[in-house]
Amino acid sequence: MKALVYHGPGQKAWENVPDPKIIDPTDVIVQVDITTICGTDLHILKGDVPAVTDGRILGHEGVGTITEVGRAVSNLAVGDRVIISCVTSCGSCSYCHQQLPSHCLDDEGASGIGWIFGHLINGTQAEYVRVPFAENSLHKMPRGVSDEAAVMLSDILPTGFEIGVRNGRVEPGDVVAVIGAGPVGLSAMMTAGLYGASRIIAIDLDDNRIQQAKFFGATDGVNSGDADWKDEVLAMTDGLGVDVAIEAVGMSATFQMATELVRAGGTVANVGVHGKSVELKLQDLWIKDIALTTGLVSATTTPMLLKLVTQGKLTPEKFVSHRFTFEAIIDAYDTFGRAAETKALKVAIIR
Questions:
Q1: Which residues contact 81 (CB under 8 A, 6 or more apart)?
Q2: Is the confidence at residue 55, as pLDDT, over 70?
């Protein structure tokens, strides 16, 4: 088969590799029909994730068709159409029992990390992929849900909801600021309304993304490049600050923005992936009674989100801005990597 293979920082190739095989009885093999690229893949290509070694097939999102099942798999069958979750779950360790498969202890020897696709084992940017613990890590596709909608349930939609909205403790009537209008930030905006947010403020440096955010649930937009960006946000909250500030970028400056915008008694929900140390100004925050949350998606809410997609109450297919074939995956990376120029949100890479 062919796959997108990592060969060290800045090096990748669409090349021939051996077909995956069943290793454990709980495995299945899935023919990947659609996949996409995540910002984490770009971090890997920059060399920011040293656990990813030369020869690793990248990717952790996908929708496909089961072609082979292990002997212990009884609830899935050849021909089933499935969503591949970015996080796999053994279903039996202490963290999985706590509904925290993001820290699964039995995932392919990962010792406390549930994200293994394209990280510790071969991933989904390939014609076929082996899925461990398949019955806990795949979701059958309902009729009427498009591949483009479903692939967004692999990662970005549950990430924005679980780590942004749910960890942020959004409640009916809350004013929510989302810093960063990329795919995960937009996912938080799309799902914040599920918990009754009265106002959702998109904050970004890119006017185009701020405008796009209005189609994903944002009620207001603020360009953080403006000198008075903070005053603009505070003016929407009677000067008190927002109830929930969701940081969806992963930079020191944006984290600082979140702590400055949150009101006393509010919550800062950090979703962004931080590759460098961030200053926590506890001398200013200790008196404010705020909560600070972090997290890696566990994807335990995917079945619920899938029901809402099936009912047409969430429309994640709107994230797809560009489409490519598998053979053009290098072009897809180029387009996604230059999102500010190309206005890319998510790229659909189709078999």
A1: 33, 63, 64, 65, 140, 141
A2: yes
> Does residue 214 register a pLDDT over 70?
yes
Identify whether the C-beta of residue 351 lies closer than 8 Å to the C-beta of residue 324: no
Phi, psi angles (nearest 5°) of residue 345: -105, -75
- Separation CA 347–CA 329 (nearest Å): 10
User: Which pTM does this prediction carry?
Assistant: 0.95
For the domain 157-293, what is the CATH code?
A: 3.40.50.720
Q: Please say whether the dihedral angle defined by the alpha carbons of residues 331, 180, 305 and 321, taken in this order, is positive or negative.
A: negative
DSSP string, 243-290: EEEEE-S--HHHHHHHHHHEEEEEEEEE-S---S-----HHHHTTTT-
The H-or-E segment that residue 235 falls in is helix 229-235
112 pLDDT band, cuts 50/70/90, is: confident
E-assigned strands of the chain? 2-6, 12-16, 28-35, 62-69, 81-84, 128-131, 138-140, 175-179, 199-204, 220-223, 242-247, 262-270, 291-293, 320-325, 346-350
Q: Identify the helix (H) or strand (E) that includes residue 185.
A: helix 183-192
Sorted by where each begins, the domain ranges of the chain are 2-155+299-350, 157-293
The rounded Cα 158 to chain-centroid distance in angstroms is 7
Q: In CATH terms, is domain 2-155+299-350 a member of 3.50.50.60?
A: no
Residue 111 reports pLDDT greater than 80: no
User: What span, in angstroms and rounded, lies between the C-alpha atoms of 120 and 113?
Assistant: 10
